[in-house]
Amino acid sequence: YAIPQNIRSHFEDNAITAKCLSLQNYEPTVPWARMQGSANGLFLSTLNNENTIPHWITLRTKQRRNLPTAPTPGVEVSTTTKPDLITLIHLGGSGVCSFHNTLHGGMISTLFDEVFFATLNHVMYTHPADVDNPTRFSTMQLDVKYRRPVRVPGIVVVRAWCLAIAGRKCWTYAELLQE
């Protein structure tokens, strides 16, 4: 998959996202949230305009890891392992805000949920078209710690890890960063 140049150039102007785009251990993949034919109308159409989320890039590791069947307690994942997925998101305008120039907290949770779905598809070698059945992947618990407001308009980077997989139960972790 080649990132369309008009989208790529948008992220190359930002120091953090330009660094992400140059990482050799990652390759771009079709942003599943924007894949035509998907049942995901929220990100495919509703949140796909200049006033919401006009640009979205997904980078995945070229080499997948072997995953344990339970997460390791007490380990700070972001300092020990490279993320399985890096998502670059342009927040365009007031269509994603709750307060003036501030990303809605529910939108933060929604972004995490969508990135977790893409992360699980990557580490489990599945394709979104194979998981439109909601019994395949369903969020059972999503805990979010809000540390500071996210500015809009702006660019965010969501780094995501799959910590463990045991049957249909998966543990994931992500962090949303903004310069």
TrEMBL record:
It comes from the Eukaryota. It holds the Pfam family 4HBT. Residues 100-168 form the Thioesterase domain. This is Thioesterase domain-containing protein.
